[in-house]
Amino acid sequence: VQEPEEKKIALELLETEQAYVSRLHLLDQIFYAELMKEAKTGKTVPEEVVKMIFSNISSIYQFHAKFFLPELQKRMEDWSCNPRIGDVIQKLAPFLKMYGEYLKNFDKAVELITVWSEKSPPFQELIADIQKRKVCANLTLQHHMLEPVQRIPRYELLLKDYVRKLPPKSPDRDDAEKALEMIFMVAKHSNAAIAEMERLQNLWVVYQRLGLEDDIVDPSNELIKEGPIQKISIRNNSTSEKYLFLFNNMLLYCVPKVIQVGAEFQVHLRIDVDGMKVRELKDTQFPHTFLVSGKQRTLELQAR
Questions:
Q1: CA geometry: angle at 38 spanning 35 and 39, to 5°?
Q2: In which region does residue 128 sit, left (phi positive, over 0), alpha (psi from -120 to 50) or beta (all else)?
Q3: How many CB atoms lie within 10 A of CB 71?
Q4: Where's the DH domain (predicted)?
């Protein structure tokens, strides 16, 4: 007898979950535990660093190993008399918000592994030693760490497929559709969390380059474009190198600092975008020139 399509997908969900839990076990109980044990001896890296690398992997592991996998196994054992997984996935979905933390931290974690592998040979050796074990299947720590990042999109795909293959009168239809909706929201939530983190991180770097002037440090600002520009001086017919930062609400006209201690630029002028006009100039002597006029003042600039 041919197994129904939806059961095949539910079994695939279970099998991939088993593989995923053993991957989480490797990350939490082997890599994290052993690196932490070494860190406590004070010979490899600070304990803080190990904690920062693995973020909240322990919570993720506990959740999947102790709760989601056993529930899924129970469902598949009872499939013949109770063919449903939608309800279990609805219980899973809210907890997937935990991934936001892990995802946000991911790039930083990979960077920390690289930096500390260079700084601390014993740290690098321990990782290499674990990577040689059979359980690692010739893959690096970084590669294994990608698994949680890819897991939520995988749930989404499998569940979409499952809902598509369900017979119209299936007892699981309502639950499965609701579960898919919930997973979809979580996937969106974690992508938004990552995008927002990146935006704030990039904004902070720009503020540091500008010397953290109080009146411009605002977390809601958005950097649109930045780059070098020539300022034209009509009086002595010459140009000088300046730098522009365009935000959603202001244009910062800056001078690169010769001695770069701390900030890279000094803000000379701030023109509000509100009421600002840009006009191209047809100047034969200075091509690619334009005029920026705002409430604060007017500048004649030349692009490359």
A1: 85
A2: alpha
A3: 16
A4: 5-193
Residue % of the chain over a pLDDT of 90: 51
CATH of region 223-302: 2.30.29.30
At 81-108, the pLDDT tens digits run 999 999 999 998 988 888 988 988 998 9
- How do residues 224-233 score in pLDDT, each as one tens digit? 898 888 888 8
Neighbours of 116 (CB within 10 A): 19
> Any idea which residue has 């690169």 for tokens?
256
The ranges assigned to domains in the chain are 5-210, 223-302
Q: Phi and psi dihedrals of 46, rounded to 5?
A: -65, 145
Straight-line distance from the first to the last Cα atom of the chain, in angstroms, rounded to the nearest whole number: 71
User: What is d(CA 146, CA 149) in angstroms, rounded to the nearest whole number?
Assistant: 5
Q: How far apart are CA 115 and CA 271, in angstroms?
A: 40
Residues 250 and 195 sit within 8 Å (Cβ to Cβ): no
Compute how many other C-beta atoms are within 10 angstroms of the C-beta atom of residue 124.
17
CATH 1.10.760.10 describes domain 5-210: no
- Say whether 290 sits in a helix, a strand or coil: strand
Cα distance between residue 261 and residue 136, in whole Å: 45
By CB atoms closer than 10 A (0-12, 13-18, 19+), residue 238 is exposed
Which pLDDT does position 43 carry in this prediction?
A: 85
Contact (Cβ atoms closer than 8 angstroms) between residue 252 and residue 264? no
Cα–Cα dist 99/188, whole Å: 12
CB neighbours of 165 closer than 8 A, spacing ≥ 6?
A: 4, 5, 6, 9
| Residue 81: both structure tokens together | 């008399």
**What residues pair up with 93 in beta bridges, in sequence order?**
none
